[in-house]
Amino acid sequence: MSDDEFLAERFEAHRGHLRAVAHRMLGSRTEADDAVQEAWLRLSRSDTREVDNLGGWLTTVVGRVCLDMLRSRRSRAEDPLDVTAPVPSPAAGPEQDALLADSVGVALLVVLESLTPAERLAFVLHDLFAVPYDDIATVLGRSPEASRQLASRARRRVRGAQAPEGGYDRRREVVDAFLAAARDGDFDGLLKVLDPDVVARGEAGVTAGAVAVAGGASGFAHLARLAHPALVDGETGLAVLVDGRVERTVTFTFVGDRIAVIEVVTDPERVARLDVTLI
Question: Which of 28, 31, 201, 215 lies in the 20 to 30 Å Cα band around 62?
Fold first, then answer.
């Protein structure tokens, strides 16, 4: 196999993930394919022999390409959001391009359109694809702390825009219904409060789709019985208490009256940094 063929093979192993990142950034399948193709062209022109993490390198490149495309779009005052295009399917591979499961459908794409290009990039790369802030800072040409602030600001705007009618009271009702169903192992009850494209994300991995997420949640009734409604960094969520100590947190992002993203934090250091208030 020639060097060019080997490089192309390595690139193809990451194509599904790169398309997912670009689609989340751009909201257009056609533009996402253009961004991935540009990443391939940049790869083919670069010396990557010293690159230890090709997937991370390519994700950074695609992020830069998408950022340029978003800025160009803004300058032309265009709105190419392709709300009818399906999210690209993951290519087969050892990891099944699991990160693609972080898609939460058209509703989130519409909300992302309200963000600035920098906010959108920081939010998508960090919250949907777990890219470290140091890497995001490289793409944006800003400090890691500035990138963190952009993502935080975007996160607040996304959650606010997606909040169900009735604001906090309605969110609390949905969370209470989720908790009650999880405690009872009520699969159908969980389906009623989950968006069809819901994503559950934690240190252990990602689960996508209402059926899969409901199945997982209904199997953790013992933990749900230790959970209490809480504000987690000011957001409606749950705190699991063990011997009076917060052992893990669960936060939610809503689309309409349903839960679209569930984020579970179990790492003790991350949990310790959260502001958790039982309600």
Answer: 201
